[in-house]
Amino acid sequence: xxxxxxxxxxxxxxxxxxxxxxxxxxxxxxxxxxxxxxxxxxxxxxxxxxxxxxxxxxxxxxxx
Length: 64
Known about the structure:
- By secondary structure, the chain is mainly alpha-helical.
- It has helices at residues 10-28, 38-62.
- The longest helix is centred in the last third of the chain and has 25 residues, at 38-62.
- The chain is globular, with a radius of gyration of 14 Å.
């Protein structure tokens, strides 16, 4: 089963990326995730995948 396609504007993608980056900085600047909590690890991996997809989409649309 493939992932559904969602269309967002470049502005929305950049805003989402900024939110993810701020969240990472705020939550893990001085602390590390609980690597024994599989729920937290899955959340972090999904967020990392979303971050990479947003960066790739932004770069494609900006011609980088």
